[in-house]
Amino acid sequence: EQIKGKLLQGAFTSSAPPAARLCDPVVDTPMLVTLDQLRPYEHNPRINRNPQYDEIRASIQTRGLDAPPSITRRPGEEHFIIRNGGNTRLCILNDLWKETGEERFFRIHCLFRPWSNRGEVLALTGHLAESDLHGGLTFIERALGVERAKGFYQLESDAALSQRELARRLKQDGYPISQSHISKMQEAVRYLLPAIPNALYGGLGKPQIEKLIVLRRSSEKAWMKYEHALVEDAHHKQLFQETLALFDQGEFNYERFQDELLHKMGKLLAQDYNRLRLDILDP
Chain-centre distance of CA 124, in angstroms? Predict the structure, then answer.
């Protein structure tokens, strides 16, 4: 009777709250995850489609995932994220899963790497390095990625960062880049991107960007030399960017922009075009 009574009792219940999900591993650990558990890294420096997208897709569709991405997870978050490089592969896997419904695209073996107190900057520099290695970034994509890394470093140290110190920290975290190149990147983000976003995101190359940076600097010096003769209220930065913005449609033409800038500066500064050209192009 006692046994019968126990069997007829209700199911065992506990007043304790439900257990939270298991803690993530504290060391690098192989892990099988599904696509619905994964999210791309939201600070991925790549903005444009990877130029090797079609080749990578064909390889994954034929051979499967030869090099699964490493993943991580921020404390308290539900989804895993790509840790350093692999957003393109994740996008392709999602597309192939939707198209084929094949499990081999839905469940993937990854290497989980624990999140650290420097997780944000390590993830970003990892993505910069991997993206450069596998399908190069455009100049402006690199520049914006480095600018974001600078913000993360400044949060770490709670202090402003010089270009030299930024170069040192990037090298320390596996993304070596010179101080002079950082200077050009910052000028491109500050002075060029507001005026010609289409040209820059479209892949305007380093040689033309460097010529624009040199022209901006030299034309600013000439402006300061002759600004006492201004015929109306104007500022060099505004003139440079407004003139540059006129050439953000179609293929960018540096020579036409240079000519237009010199003509407008000549009128505003009451200076002969050829004299101004000598000051700016042959200082």
Answer: 8
Q: Let me know: does 112 contact 25? Beta carbons within 8 Å.
A: yes
Give the pLDDT band of residue 175 (cuts 50, 70, 90): very high
- The answer to whether 68 and 109 are in contact (CB under 8 A) is yes
Q: What is the pTM of this model?
A: 0.84
- What angle do helix axes 254-269 and 236-245 make, rounded to 10 degrees? 140
Identity of the residue numbered 22? L
- The model's confidence at residue 133, banded by pLDDT at 50, 70 and 90, is confident
Q: How far apart are the first and last CA of the chain?
A: 107
Contact between 131 and 92 under an 8 Å Cβ cutoff? The reply is no
Separation of alpha carbons 124 and 129, rounded Å: 9
SS3 per residue for the chain = CHHHHHHCCCCCCCCCCCCCCCCCCCCCEEEEEEHHHEECCCCCCCCCCCCCHHHHHHHHHHHCCCCCCEEECCCCCCCEEECCCCHHHHHHHHHHHHHHCCHHHHEEEEEECCCCCCHHHHHHHHHHHHHHHCCCCCHHHHHHHHHHHHHHHHHHHCCCCCHHHHHHHHHHCCCCCCHHHHHHHHHHHHHHCCCCHHHHHCCCCHHHHHHHHHHHHHHHHHHHHHHHHCCCCCCHHHHHHHHHHCCCCCCCCHHHHHHHHHHHHHHHHCCCHHHHHHHHHCC
Tokens of 127: 């993505």
